[in-house]
Structures are given as C-alpha cells and as structure tokens.
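Fill-in record for J domain-containing protein.
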Amino acid sequence: MEMTIQEAANILGVLRQDDVSTIKQKFRKMIGQYHPDAVGSDEPEHIKKAQLINEAYSILRENLMQGKEIPASTPVWKAKVLENAFTVRTIYMILWEDHKKEYIEVTRGRYEWDPDLEEFDCLLKSLNQAVLELLEKTEHQNGIFQDYEYDLITQRFPYQVQLFHALAGQYILPVSCLKKLASPIRIDEEGRHIYKFQAFLGTKGDSKIFRVMLKLKSGDLLYADSLKDNRLMLSDEKGGSLGHLSLAEDSLYYVIIPILQKHLAQVKFVVSAMEVKRNIRPYVVRVNIDLFLRMEKMEGLEIDSDQNIAIEGVLNSYDSYLKTL
C-alpha cells in the first residue's frame, strides 16, 4: 500500500510552517540515524526505517514541488494522558548529528512520563520548558515581554525550582515508573515486592561528617533523617549526620523519594563498602550503600487537587512579585 502524505509528514515530524529547506534538514538528520552506511549496520530494522524515511521525503518533496499543502504531523504518543495535570508539556526526542545532541518536538499533551517511551533527559527538558511557559505567561499578563528589561533570570529561579518539582510530581507517577525502571529482587511471603538500588554517601576534608563516615563499616545500618528539597538525609545509629544520599541514576530521585514521602514503602540502608583516599588532599571518603525498598502498596496514585492548588499558588506569588516591579 502506498504511503499517504499524512503518514509521510508523521514520519519526518513535519510542522505546518516547515518549508522545503526545513523538511530537507529533518530528512538528513533522520536518515543519518538509520541509513546502513551511516550507522555501520545492515540490520533489517535499520534498512526498513531508512526506506520509510526516503519514501516519506520523496512524497513530501513531490507534493511541495506541485504546490500542494503539507499537513502537520499528527503523532500519537502512547503514554497515559493525565487529564487533571495542571498544564500540557512538549514531548521531545533526541537526534544526534556529528556527535551533537539535538532535541526535536514530537507532540504536546498532558502525558505521564513513561520510561519505556521517553528518555529521562527529554523529560527534564520537557518539564523545564513547561515551567518557562507558565512563568512567561504570567510575565506577559503583567506586560513584561523581554527579559533584558528586568533581571528576571535571577528572580525567576526560586519560582522555577518550586514549579519544576511540582510538575515532576504530577507527570512522574512513582509506582508506575518503579515497575518499569527496576525489577524486584524478591517477593516476600506477604506478596510485597522488594527492590534493591545502589546508592552512596561521600565527602572530603576533615569535617564532622567526614569523621562520622570514617567510623562506618560494611553491614552497618543507616537511617533516614529527613526528606528535604528532593534530598534524602541520612544519619548513623547514634544520630550523627551523614549528609544527603546520592543515587546511582538521577531518575530514581523522582521515584524513590516520592514513594517514601507518600509512605508507600519501607526502606533500609546497609553499608556495603567503604572507600577512603588518604593519598590526596583533601582526604576523600565514599560510603557505598545498598538501598532496600519494600513496597507496601503497588497501586499508583492519581493527581489530587492539592497539587494543582500548589502550582497555582506559586504562580500567584510570582504574579504578586511582578506587580512590585
């Protein structure tokens, strides 16, 4: 069956305003990702994808030469739609050209983050962009359209941070993501899923935390002290502060910490190894930790109205600040 012009537009991610030159650039970028000569592979999926890209470009070019209108792509993103999310966000994908990363827009909507579909790096860009759109909308409502008129980059920052974490809390459903990012190491007799993650603590110099860390040994249990600013603070059995925990993968901060905040799991921290470097100044210590997560609930939580109220509150605070300028 012959490819339709709409299918061709979808394959190349064509936007309604794209001209011949732009479509050609998109074609070159995509073909560079899949053409067997470019990727050094003759795998069937690469060959098939390259054929589809070539066919799509040929159809679009022919229609443009005939003066026909090219429809915008209408990609269907398969992630779950979160109807109650505060705002839409842009979905991105990454294209590499000459070892340089470039983000291209795929679609927009209130889509849950699905680790199987969307790279975490693309999610971060999406959330940051959504935050900027919300802040700029508030600025425009106050008659502010150019950053250089005011020091908004600096003044925006605390509002950006609050909005970013709030939107992340809406679009990253932690239990759903946990199921896709990790597999349980076992299921106990009560049917509870138990996960294991790699984490670590570290510091340098001769600080109080450094001295507390030096006393640790493999097998020691550590304890969650507090959850603050998306960070998990730990202490030893005597209550000595050990600083914030670092996780092996950045995406896990947005999964594990919300799960603990919502009391969906029990957690245990066990020292697995100690690394102390005294041959450099300042001294460095690293405490490797096994983090065990026992899920008490595996049902995902939906967005509640309080989250939207919190986002609205941040925007209202920013609006009030702008009115003082």
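KEY FINDING: The chain has three domains: 5-65, 78-171+303-325, 178-295.
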